[in-house]
Amino acid sequence: MEFVEYVLIAVAILVVGLVSAVGLLVGRGRRTTRLDDDAAAGTTLTRPRPPQTTPPPAPAPAPERTGSTAVDPADLPVAEPVELPPAEPEPGLVFETPPPSAGRLVRLRSRLARSQSSLGRGLLTVLGREKLTEDDWEEIEETLLAADIGVAATTQIVSRLRTQSMVLATATGEDLRQLLVRELTAVLGPDLDRTLHTDRHDGRPAVVLVVGVNGAGKTTTVGKIARSLVGDGKTVLLGAADTFRAAAADQLETWGERVGVLTVRGREGGDPAAVAFEAVRTGTEGEVDTVLVDTAGRLHTKSGLMDELGKVKRVVEKHGPVDEVLLVLDATTGQNGVVQARVFTEAVHVTGVVLTKLDGTAKGGIVVSVQRELGIPVKLIGLGEGPDDLAPFEPEAFAEAIVG
Ligand SMILES: Nc1nc2c(ncn2[C@@H]2O[C@H](COP(=O)(O)OP(=O)(O)OP(=O)(O)O)[C@@H](O)[C@H]2O)c(=O)[nH]1
Q1: SMART domains annotated for this entry (predicted)?
Q2: Residue 364: is its pLDDT beyond 70?
Q3: Helix, strand, coil shares of the chain as percentages rounded to 5?
Q4: Residue 55 CB less than 6 A away from ligand 1
């Protein structure tokens, strides 16, 4: 046998050994505790297991549903009090330490490359021309509209740039860049309150409900928010109120397990409101800072499903007001996002938007449309599939990133 073959065999044995060791560890860490005997609620609390080395699986989008049954909140099962597992992981369990949320947009700015090249560079090229003709102004307008900035904001930017055309004529490349950053920042709502209400108050956890259409990135976003809160030193509990698909709850659980966060889940097909209620109750007893509730994807056009969502919120509110209702919108769906936002906010009063998949689109301007047309601030943006690819939205840093 050649020396190379010996090396290959040795590496193979090492890999098999490592895989078995990780498997044993994962198996040991997993615990699921029944919270109550009521089969109707069927809620379980999953204790974290050690982190996995691969990102959580993203199951295929859920099939479309058609309706739901209304249940009187007063009929909700009341579970027995539970004892939460100790906050400290079992010996041998090591959880990931995610980075804090601050400064993420700047770190992830290269993910906006598609918007940067079509919007930022496109505009700078035209503005840099010696004398701007009507055709040039039209090109600027088209570039802004193509980026989904919307008609009103486009008109505002173009007219403000036109009033500065004297300045443009003599401006250096850097002057133009700064001017564009300033004008884009102005339409990005720099004064909007983007605080994410995740702090404990009045002796109870902050409750965050996450909603949106199928496949927008809700579960992934809940997982990413949990990580970033843990990175900021907060304690978190997850509620898997997507009882429609067990895979969605599994996916959420995996996110939690990686950072030592517990998940309350229900049986498949169970009442999502009961799970959400139970999650908040468990989080309150466990004195966590934040309870994040993931909900099933639903088409905004299905009134039965929108009613179901309204019920989830009403039932959770039996514990006290919901602090944040985050609507997750897929930036690549363009103006349809505005329509979705309108319907969702009518059903559950959305307090903030999470715009996902901005890394995969040249239409970064959708941030502007959503905020302008609905008055709802974009609070977070998704910039990739990685576990920490979620950033607090900051208008100026965003404009800087797009202009490049
Ligand atoms: N590129 C990119 N992909 C993302 C981002 N956020 C989520 N995704 C991907 O979008 C896909 C759907 O994400 P999910 O979190 O499963 O979506 P969901 O809204 O929970 O889906 P349903 O439960 O079916 O309604 C997954 O492949 C995610 O990795 C993002 O910011 N950028």
Answers
A1: AAA, SRP54, SRP54_N
A2: yes
A3: 50, 15, 40
A4: no
